[in-house]
């Protein structure tokens, strides 16, 4: 990939910067600024070279959300940042023309236009017409074949931003871990995790499954899962992975009847789970096993909380996080839910590297590349 550092002339040049501004917003306020702060190095580099910086990004949801609260949050680091309520058209073009060297303009949520996710060439052309250079710095969407990811690079000279370069460097290193090594993969949907599990089982000493993903493996072993979320996907592939001695599957769980208050949750072995109980977190025995591996490891890779942290089931995730940061491992963390959970414990900055990607991180680890990276040439 060509780097933004390779661009010889930036002064007074309009640069379209695809960056990661997809952050949680509640009541009009940004709740977590990790991705916003990760975006700053490339923005500041372009500003220091007196480029006209045009930020484009998306925010997840129904497609109607606005980036305006993000613009307000970014002003604490970029005084004078301008927000434009559209991403294309005469108003956006006028806002770009009005920029002075070193100024920053943020355009509206790209996903308000259906052409973004459809990779519509016409939409990509409209975006590309706003600038002379494109810089891709949003690793978290590089696994998507969207207009702002793979469409624009066909129309403008395109480069990798500083954050994107760091992501590729650190995740490439994570595929060559120091031994002993531990990888933890949570989340749901076995079909989306199977490729990365196969890859990690080849290079890591131990690979643990957690979260709803683990339920598929627990069930495949013939254990009880009650009313827990299971994908019901490729059971033959799951059985094949279970034969790998490197794979770690939880041996106990914290469960509760669906809808019951957290105070009614209990730790139990799988054989004692009732039909109306759900697995909500890893149990104390499983947590202790993972913590022991983490404390001894020299490399730890982690994507996905161990339990339903959004409902307050954070004990397993917290115990493992403490074990990782108290150990001596080179630790790599990723996934929006994982980062939110670890950030709530105040431990994020004690990990060696924190990726802005969730699905993109897993796809890169599985394949070694992404559509958005290949588009940069």
Structural features, described:
This protein is of the alpha/beta class. It has 2 domains: 4-164, Phosphoglycerate kinase, N-terminal domain (Rossmann fold, 3-Layer(aba) Sandwich); 175-367, 3-Layer(aba) Sandwich (Rossmann fold), CATH 3.40.50. It has helices at residues 34-48, 68-74, 90-97, 114-117, 121-128, 147-151, 162-174, 190-203, 211-220, 235-242, 284-296, 315-326, 336-344, 359-367, 371-374, and strands at residues 14-18, 25-26, 29-30, 52-56, 82-83, 104-106, 133-136, 158-160, 181-185, 206-209, 247-248, 252-257, 266-269, 277-282, 299-303, 330-334, 353-354. α6 links the parallel β7 and β8 (158-160). α8 packs across α14 (359-367) and α11 (284-296) runs parallel beside α12. The longest helix is centred in the N-terminal third of the chain and has 15 residues, at 34-48. It is elongated, with a radius of gyration of 22 Å.
Summarize the structure.
With 377 residues, this protein is α/β, with parallel strands linked by helices. It has helices at 34-48, 68-74, 90-97, 114-117, 121-128, 147-151, 162-174, 190-203, 211-220, 235-242, 284-296, 315-326, 336-344, 359-367, 371-374; strands at residues 14-18, 25-26, 29-30, 52-56, 82-83, 104-106, 133-136, 158-160, 181-185, 206-209, 247-248, 252-257, 266-269, 277-282, 299-303, 330-334, 353-354. The strands form 4 sheets. A 6-stranded parallel beta sheet has the order 5-6-4-1-7-8. A 6-stranded parallel beta sheet has the order 11-10-9-15-16-17, with helices on both faces. A 3-stranded antiparallel beta sheet has the order 13-12-14.
């Amino acid at each position: 990939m060509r780097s933004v550092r390779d661009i010889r002339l930036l002064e007074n040049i309009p640069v379209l910067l695809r960056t990661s501004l997809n952050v949680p917003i509640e009541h009009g306020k940004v709740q977590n600024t990790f991705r916003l702060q990760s975006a700053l190095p490339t923005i500041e580099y372009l500003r220091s070279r007196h480029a006209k910086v045009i930020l484009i990004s998306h925010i997840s949801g129904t497609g109607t959300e606005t980036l305006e609260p993000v613009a307000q949050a970014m002003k604490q680091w970029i005084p004078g940042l301008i927000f434009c309520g559209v991403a294309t058209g005469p108003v956006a073009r006028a806002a770009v023309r009005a920029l002075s060297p070193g100024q920053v303009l943020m355009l509206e949520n790209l996903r308000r236009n259906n052409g973004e996710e459809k990779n519509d060439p016409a939409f990509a052309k409209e975006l590309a017409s706003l600038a002379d250079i494109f810089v891709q710095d949003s690793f978290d969407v590089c696994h998507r074949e969207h207009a702002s990811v793979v469409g624009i690079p066909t129309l403008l000279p395109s480069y990798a931003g500083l954050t994107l370069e760091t992501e590729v460097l650190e995740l490439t290193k994570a595929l060559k871990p120091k031994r002993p090594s531990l990888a933890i993969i949570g989340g749901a949907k076995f079909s989306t995790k199977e490729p990365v599990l196969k890859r990690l089982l080849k290079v890591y000493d131990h690979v643990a499954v957690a979260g709803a993903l683990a339920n598929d493996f627990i069930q495949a072993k013939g254990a009880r899962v009650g009313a827990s979320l299971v994908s019901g996907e490729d059971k033959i592939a799951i059985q094949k992975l279970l034969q790998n001695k490197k794979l770690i599957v939880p041996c106990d769980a914290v469960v509760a009847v669906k809808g019951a208050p957290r105070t009614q949750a209990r730790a139990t072995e799988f054989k004692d789970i009732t039909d109306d109980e759900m697995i909500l977190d890893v149990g104390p025995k499983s947590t202790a096993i993972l913590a022991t591996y983490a404390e001894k490891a020299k490399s730890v890779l982690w994507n996905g909380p161990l339990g339903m942290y959004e409902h307050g089931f954070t004990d397993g995730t917290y115990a493992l996080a403490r074990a990782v940061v108290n150990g001596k491992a080179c630790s790599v963390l990723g996934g929006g839910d994982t980062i939110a959970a670890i950030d709530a414990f105040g431990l994020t900055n004690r990990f060696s590297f924190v990726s802005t990607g969730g699905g993109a991180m897993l796809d890169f680890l599985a394949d070694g590349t992404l559509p958005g990276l290949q588009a940069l040439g």
